[in-house]
Amino acid sequence: MNRLHRQAQERLSTLLDGFGLQGEVPLSNWIDGAPCPGEGETITLIDPATGEALLDYRDAGPALVERAVASATRAQQAWMALTASERGRRMNAAVRGLEGHEEALAQLESVVAGKPIRDCRGEVGKVREMFEYYAGWCDKQHGEVIPVPTSHLNYVRHVPYGVVGQITPWNAPMFTCAWQLAPAIAAGNGVVLKPSELTPFTSVTIARLLEQGGLPKGLVSIVNGLGPSTGAALTGSEGISKLVFVGSPQSGRLIAEAGARRLVPSVLELGGKSANIVFADASLDAAVAGAQAAIFAAAGQSCVAGSRLLVQREAFAEVTERLARAAAGIEVGLPGDEATRMGPLQNARQYAHVTRMIEDAVAAGARVIVGGSRPAGLPEEAQGYFLAPTVLVDVTPEMEIAREEVFGPVLVAMPFDDEADAVRLANATRFGLAGAVWTQDPARAHRVAGQLRAGTVWINGYKAISVMSPFGGFGDSGFGRSSGLDGLREYTLPQSVWVETASEASVAMGYGSGVG
């Protein structure tokens, strides 16, 4: 065992002890207000920085999923028996249960997900922001009165689905956990959430801390395990009334199909191949800085990563040269180091996928102008999934790397001639999650943004995001929205209520009341 790996194991053990998750079984599920060991096959967690095993835990399995669903069903009924204002107060109190644990949560995320500690600290703050925002909506989900052309009073109210099944990914487990939990419970639902089997810790910890802060026991259950076993049991459970999935288009199709077989709706937040469009009149200093943040933050493991840089031809050489110099200076290092700006990819499978796509692109005629291999300067023991920030040019639109999601720190740069050409290239994809336009011409900025088939578009910026604004995509990027008021509405159904106000009941279908 090398020095770095031993340090990671010791760090992880200390963190788990602090959260009460270390025992005979190092990781448990969280069901009905208590830890619950898995019952299935053994899963081994790998340290992304060293490529060595951190610990083993057991897959939850179908029986535990059903226990979690039953627990959430009971808790949801009690939750809805409270007033809306009381639910809001309890949500605000619950998130205060995280106070004093922020640094430990960030450290836990960093060691398992392989994310720079500075990024993880920011995401802890986002957890609080999400719960505070949706807590404020609890008593503001107003219905409406419809002026129907009869003697009836007709009003519409928004009612919860009941128990929602949620599946979150490995690239941002803590962020996506809170991103999904907060609107679901604000709308009155119970939740059973399955994190990625690669990053299970922070979701269990958040659920436990929220209950300690005031959420009802069992309202949120966490089941940890594999997709074909625990995930399939969750999507197939008769007690689940809606499915929410964040992940790849391939898995998203399976989730949607599983729900469709039971006529259960779903929200899918899937991949992206976002176009970052730079016109020659843009502030190139800002555009180059923005392009780095768009693709190299989180090692490119972001659904909104600006993985296609489209630059007007007269500025193409300058922008790509400057970007290559800047990329070469990004500090790639160990996740726990304060100086690290970019850590490793999270797992071996993703690393193999990314490096294979680079190799295939080069074989097809693309040229790597920076990166493309393991970065220099890493400790010898850091034999994990590190890849230097990479930029490719001489890429053509039909190449796989220009069409498919890479989900790594790999940017393809392509020139365009005019607005029409930029829009055509940007929309030449099945994905439609995000995009950006850089120009100092306000009319052009809005004109181009309005033509992009993307759920989020930035002008002279990239990756600004808020829980207050709707987020989601078109096409292979999924459907439904997962934040803002639109995200809250995904978790309720409109119920139409008709009240007869006439002194005598109206006659329906020609039949009287039967009273002689």
Descriptive overview:
By secondary structure, the chain is of the alpha/beta class. It is about 40% helix and about 20% strand. The chain contains 16 helices and 22 strands. It has helices at about 5-20, 60-80, 85-95, 100-115, 115-135, 175-185, 200-215, 225-235, 250-260, 285-295, 315-330, 350-365, 400-405, 420-425, 440-450, 485-490, and strands at about 30, 35, 40-45, 55-60, 145, 150-160, 165, 190-195, 220, 240-245, 265-270, 275-280, 310, 365-370, 390-395, 410-415, 430, 435-440, 455-460, 475, 480, 490-500. The strands form six sheets. It has a seven-stranded mixed β-sheet with strand order 14-15-16-13-12-18-19, with helices on both faces. It has a six-stranded mixed β-sheet with strand order 9-8-7-10-11-21, with helices on both faces. A hairpin with a 2-residue loop joins strand 1 (about 30) and strand 2. This is Aldehyde dehydrogenase family protein. InterPro entries: Ald_DH/histidinol_DH, Ald_DH_C, Ald_DH_CS_CYS, Ald_DH_CS_GLU, Ald_DH_N, Aldehyde_DH_dom. Keywords: Oxidoreductase. Belongs to the aldehyde dehydrogenase family. It comes from Billgrantia ethanolica.
